[in-house]
Specification:
The chain has strands spanning 2-4, 11-14, 25-32, 37-44, 65-72, 77-81, 92-96, 104-110, 117-123, 126-131, 134-138, 142-148, 155-160, 170-178, 186-188, 191-195. It is mainly β and 197 residues long. Strands 6, 9, 12, 14, 15 and 16 form a 6-stranded antiparallel beta sheet that branches.
Amino acid sequence: ITVLDATGSSVLYASLLGKGGALATGATALALDGCNGAYVAGTTYSTAFPATPGAFDETYNGGGDAWLLRITTLNPWTDLGHSLDTPARSPRVAPSGPLCAGDPTALVLTDGRPGGSAYLVIGATELAAPFKGGTLMPAPDIVVPGIPLDGSGGVTLTFSWPAGLPAALDVFFQVWMPDATGPLGFSASNAVVGRTP
């Protein structure tokens, strides 16, 4: 599977499906899903063809087995940095999800103030303004206050990605926390931006 850029002149991604050696396997269909991914279907005559643990049928049954895979070719997330660390903590947020309407999305915060609370700042544009001794990266279009942090200073925020957002829209996220040990009484995670497909 090879993904080319829009001009067809540069390889963005390439992969080989299989485990070493000749695999007597062929792809017979390809469909794009509109969300940075593709579905590929085919047939294999190989006992070494890889299967996902827990799949409907993980073993070769002879005579040519059908297979289907979904491959996600592009990561829609970019880490912008700009965390505001304290002497004891380096808060970080790790995003996941393909940013397709209805798909699960997660922001996992680690190393915040144990037992503290946080503000999730969401914006459709980059602000990059000085704030509380750090840099507020998202323009604060939405601010979600009072998010409780666990005993290790972490929290996992999950939600379904909203429908109706235009393609190539950048959405910025950053977590800010009241923290007496931080500059001007605050600490902040790195900022991340997700671009809708």
